[in-house]
Specification:
Helices cover 69% and strands 0% of the residues. By secondary structure, the chain is an all-alpha fold. The chain has one domain. It is globular, with a radius of gyration of 24 Å. The two termini are 30 Å apart.
Length: 479
């Protein structure tokens, strides 16, 4: 009986560990990986034990594993990815800086399967409200670790109480990167932009949904609002322009989609106080306006301290191209243009998964060669960097062509449909899950314009959780 009980609880233990370690995305101790492999999720270790355990239990008929419709859509994309890799092998581009196509293709396929492993595990480990509560609790536990380490970095950067060199040694004990020299908070992630991406796509969705729907996963009613406030402060301290815009835009959209009743109630309450013609009521509402303006002004002043952020509005650019270069996005834009040039040459099948980097330099726009110092450095003979598109959608177009791109987009909209189906249940937990899922879906859709990795867990975890919940609930209704 004890062994049976242990076998049942082990998957939950390793799933909890995976959620707890999600913030660590560049774990130093991975065997067989070179220094160039920066996406190294620590959560992959518990996941590598979890999935075999689930398969063993299913083989012994101890559990039933959910078969989701999203698996079919994702499977179609994977099959075409193999086909495109075969096409790329036939094209066989000239090796670039010691990299061969076959090596890049194998690496790309491995990263794809790592990402899919996170998605499948999330589907199989989330079936009902109890599973959702368990998962979100451990996600919040991981967030608390992330906030604590971010706080330690903030103390180091802004108070002088801790020596930066000492904290750098602490961070290098688990991370591939030392503290950011520009005093931007990076948390447990590799860089500030990665931390902002985690917050936007994994943590903010559940925190925002909890506050909006008033659904709580613990007995501590104050936990989600406090974590939301602290996460917002950390997000500001990353100075990540993309992360801030994603969170701001997605939050506004979610309020319009799911919070119209709340907005209407707040609007009615606010202006009713002015109609009452009571001095105390008038002063209270006026103080709210002053506080709101002060928060916006304070945020603007705080962000303006960094030249990196200030360049968004302090520019003399006369064209969109000049503006992109002025705000330090020239290299990113040039790589994307180079990858799109590859797509134009092989529009249907692409050049094979992992192969876009072989064609980027030859397709770089002329303006990038003269106005972007980063590009000039990377074109020197001594540079060993293998370029990438810096944009997930551009990468799909360049490497899998229009067919692969359409298949993956079909998978994404299949996932969105699963998320929205939970709204039909009319239960508090289902609405909470749906709001979090749609928030994450929109945030991930925007985040993918700024990254191109298939391994990043935060683009797979929340969609997998929602697909698992929606599929299991649908199967339960049918049966």
């Amino acid at each position: 009986m004890k062994n049976s009980l242990s076998l049942k609880t082990l998957p939950r233990l390793f799933w909890a560990l995976a959620m707890l370690t999600l913030p660590v995305t560049s774990f130093r101790w991975f065997p067989g990986l070179g220094e160039g492999a920066l996406v190294r999720p620590l959560a992959l270790y518990p996941l590598a034990v979890l999935l075999p355990l689930l398969l063993i239990q299913a083989w012994r008929k101890k559990i039933n594993l959910t078969w989701a419709g999203a698996f079919v859509a994702l499977g179609a994309f994977v099959l075409f990815a193999f086909f495109s890799a075969a096409i790329g092998s036939l094209i066989n581009p000239i090796p670039l800086r010691g990299q061969t196509y076959d090596g890049r293709a194998i690496r790309a396929l491995v990263t794809l399967f790592i990402g899919i492993a996170f998605f499948i595990a999330a589907v199989w480990m989330n079936k009902d409200e109890a599973d959702l509560r368990f998962t979100v609790k451990w996600i919040f536990a991981g967030l608390c670790l992330d906030l604590a380490w971010s706080g330690l970095q903030a103390v180091t950067f802004y108070t002088g109480l801790l020596e930066k060199e000492m904290v750098t040694h602490w961070q290098l004990a688990f991370s591939m990167r030392e503290l950011v020299r520009t005093n931007r908070i990076s948390g447990l992630a590799y860089e500030p932009a990665w931390l902002a991406g985690q917050l936007a796509t994994t943590f903010f969705p559940f925190l925002f949904a909890a506050v909006l729907t008033k659904y709580r996963v613990t007995r501590l009613s104050w936990l989600e609002p406090v974590l939301l406030a602290l996460s917002t402060l950390v997000l500001l301290a990353t100075y990540s322009r993309g992360g801030l815009l994603i969170v701001l835009g997605t939050s506004g959209l979610m309020l319009l989609l799911f919070g119209r009743d709340i907005l209407r109630g707040m609007w009615t309450w606010f202006f009713s106080g002015f109609r009452e013609r009571r001095f105390a009521s008038f002063i209270f509402r006026l103080s709210i306006i002053v506080a709101f303006i002060s928060i916006i002004a304070g945020t603007f002043i705080f962000l303006s301290q960094k030249n990196y952020f200030r360049r968004l509005w302090e520019t003399n650019a006369e064209s969109l191209r000049e503006y992109i270069v002025d705000i330090n996005a020239g290299a990113r834009g040039a790589y994307s243009v180079g990858a799109l040039g590859t797509f134009s040459e092989y529009p249907l099948t692409g050049v094979g998964l992992g192969g876009s980097g072989f064609y980027i330099y030859q397709n770089l726009p002329d303006w990038a060669l003269t106005t972007v110092p980063e590009i000039a450095k990377q074109l020197t003979p001594t540079n060993e960097l293998y370029p990438n598109p810096k944009n997930f959608y551009v990468r799909l177009l360049a490497e899998t062509g229009l067919i692969g791109f359409i298949l993956f987009i079909a998978f994404l909209f299949n996932v969105l449909g699963e998320m929205l189906s939970l709204l039909k249940r009319g239960e508090a937990w289902a609405r909470f899950a749906a709001v979090a899922g749609v928030f994450a879906w929109v945030a991930i859709a925007l985040y993918n314009f700024t990254q191109d990795s298939l391994t990043t867990p935060n683009i797979w975890i929340v969609p997998g959780i929602l697909v698992g919940l929606a599929t299991y609930q649908l199967n339960k209704e049918v049966s």
